[in-house]
Amino acid sequence: MSKRWSKGLVLASLLVAVGLSGCYEPEPRPRIIGQDRPVAMPARQTAPQSRMLGRSVQGRPIVAQILGNGSDTTLILATIHGDEAAGTPLVRKLADHLAANPQVLEGRRVVLVPSANPDGAAAGTRENIRGVDLNRNFQTANRVDNATNGLRPLSEPETQALQRAIQEFRPDRIISVHQPLDCIDYDGPGRELAAYLARFCRLPVKKLGARPGSLGSYSGEHLGIPTVTLELPAGATGLDEARLWSLYGPAMTAAITYSLPASK
Questions:
Q1: pLDDT tens digits, residue range 207-264?
Q2: Residue 205 in contact with residue 194, Cβ under 8 Å?
Q3: Per-residue pLDDT tens for 74-129?
Q4: Would you say residue 140 lies in a domain?
């Protein structure tokens, strides 16, 4: 090999080595439109809050769990009759579902009261510990004063707690979970909401009529809040939480995402 060829080979090898070592200015990468803009993050949901609404006759807490901070508010409560226990695990499962799916709460607020009659639930009785039916104890035009309904409206601390929740949160709709009539009842301007929820479960809509001193008479007929009673069947008490959710969870979620008629 000639000296000239040998020097040329060495020079070429040095140039390749310099190139591989990065001692050159690379071509700029293609610019992606919008890559220099800040990434839009989803709206931050506030952490769930608990609010003490009051205490039962025996001192058990009546607690509301508040999720979301939007202007559209849904109040959902269960077990105002202590022997209608299936609604409590269903409402608790709804709280878990909303925490895991915060997009449902966009622009919305949900107030959950899993047990409105904790003394009755502990004793397995329809009434509270003083023998008063809390769903007949509200101040309404059709109420009847007696020992079962209460000698006066709002005589019971549990009913006072629920009225306090309605006054404070001013819900756009109210869902109360009951048993065992196996239907969807409504009061006030709640017919369209009831029909909508029936699309998400097997319960038929059945208008039972506003009962004297009931929550529906108070919130639906007196205050004009669409109020729906989700009447689960008697056998729902024996179902586990997962089965309850599979049957009625879609209707519970639909109540939250329901759009009120423009005329309201």
A1: 999 999 999 999 999 999 999 999 999 999 999 999 999 999 999 999 999 985 544 4
A2: yes
A3: 999 999 999 999 999 999 999 999 999 999 999 999 999 999 999 999 999 999 99
A4: yes
Q: Is residue 180 part of a domain?
A: yes
The DSSP code for 129 is: T
Range of the domain at 72: 49-257
Number of CB atoms found within 10 A of residue 156's CB? 24
- 48-82 as b/e: b if 16+ CB within 10 A: eeeeebbbbbeebebbbbbbbeeebbbbbbbbbbb
Specify the amino acid at residue 102. Answer: P
Q: Which residue has the tokens 């509270």?
A: 128
Q: What are phi and psi of 258, to 5 degrees?
A: -60, 135
Closest alpha carbon to 49 in 88, 105, 103, 118: 105
